[in-house]
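tool_call: predict_structure(chain=1)
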Amino acid sequence: MVEKSEGDTYPLIHELEMYCEQVYSISQILSIPDLCIEEFLKLDSLLKKIMSAIQDIPLKKEAVFFPYNAAMWDSLESIWRAASADKEVETYVIPIPYYEKRNHGEEIEEKYDGGKYPSYVPITDYRSYSLEEHQPDIAYIHNPFDRFNKVTSVHPDYYSNELKKNVTKVVYVPYFLTGGTMYTYHREFPSYYHVDFIVTQNTKMIDSFASTIPRKKFIPWGNPIADRIIQLDKDKPDIPEEWKPMLSNGTDFEGKRTVMYNTSLSMILQEKDNALDKMEMVFKLFREAKDILLIWRPHPLMHATLRTMEGTLYQRYLAIEKSFLEEDIGVLDRTSDVGIAVALSEAYIGEASSVIYMFELIGKPVFLIDPHIENRINAHNGCEVTALGRCTEDNMEYFLADEYAFLCRRDKSTEFIELLDKVPLDTVCSKGVYKDIYKWGDSVYLQPYCGEGLCNYNINKKIFRKFYVKNSVANGFKAMYPVGQYLHLVPDKYPYNVKFDMTREEFIYGALNNCNDSTKSFEVEGTQEKPEKIRYVFPENLICKIRAQELVERTGGLVIYENEDDTLQDFLYLLENDGLFHKVKGSLSRISINATMDGTCGKKIHEFLKSTLH
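tool_result:
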């Protein structure tokens, strides 16, 4: 044991060899008393050296990791890294066999993922490791079900109650990341009473567990999955070799924006054919999205679960999977490491699952699809909008798209319409906030109606500024007209005559206005006609851009839930538009699921558990 743990050059090894030789020498001279006394003195001296050397041997603890499904190794990796770096701890990673059940448990298929772990993780074969002989100090598991799972089961030798017979401390580490509370169906398992400790993301999560579980079992110091995701996102992994045959150039993403599509078990089990209908619609959208690469990652147990179900659901799923591959829609990720897909993807679409918290953790947008929302796929060629306050200069017409509160510019010779920017609003209502437009130099001025102030947009700098009148009222002004450097605001309900100096950028107030005098007329400088309203047809791409912009403003860009107004097609346009995409990314912050989500969770858990050993 000493030679194995310390090496054959360790000084004690030499002392033991000399001791054995001395014992042999004495056995040869037992008939000569005088010689024996001298040799026994030498033996005693050697024994004292050996005893002293034994005291200097560091007493190592033994920590063993028992993962079963390689796809869930991320829940243990950062603890293993901390333990394996500790010179006082001997570590073993021992993937254990498990079983997939079919036809309500009548058919069972044995699985072993020992060959699927990262190359830097040394694997010990479970058949060569005896728990009875090793009696490890700590054992980590990430399967809490024991025999109480209809789809999978680890080998019975590794149920929590069996492990406890030969392990000092058994620790359960959840195989998933959550938003801060435990899933309802995970609140109580028999294994929780067998293990010594349960890792949780925070103290709040402890309340989600059954009250009968002793609170001293919980270690509320974060989630090792977060450690790994933070590290992977920082040091981007290489594109897996398994993906490359599915890439159009066989090498890389060709500059395309990457989106992970996650299909969970729960959605399929709950929605069945509705979920598959949605899957087909998602693939149809991405088939047409030329600048986005889809990385589809079904749940690792998708096939095993669907095979156990009655009906044609599994056969239909297989047909969809085959079509996805044959039509080169994207990458089908069958690797065991979800972290790589998260790190290499720029956004997430799919159902609510533990994976969304990985994306939120590193500040990437999340779009949660609804199987009951039908995607708009080229639903129409365009949409009519109301153009207010048209103002023309050098064949370019500026106007306000009233329904969407977008400042627009139209080339009258080509009929091309450009969206300049979204107008900031004082109210939640987009219609009727501004009524008239005037262009002066590099600026466009918007006359307030329901709004509280004059709005200025600098075309070159692409920025809006507001100039507020004193004592503003609703429906304050009904029109505006320029005279030299001044913009005269024609009062409606506003009690003063007022003009704005566009050079000095300040209001000049005149005499009190008779608000009841509706006979007052005014002239508008310039030759352009200004009818009150006109309808323009916006092409579909402009409508998508407007809807995507509104989606960002309405949701704040954190987690976007699909509905009739915010569809997947809008989200895809947002991803294709660099400005909108980076605006969303810039608005994201790491989820506050735990204060210790800083990449050090595994180290803290290891140090705590080591301190509990005597």
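agent: The chain has four domains: 2-56, 61-223+599-611, 239-374+548-587, 382-532. Proceeding to next step.
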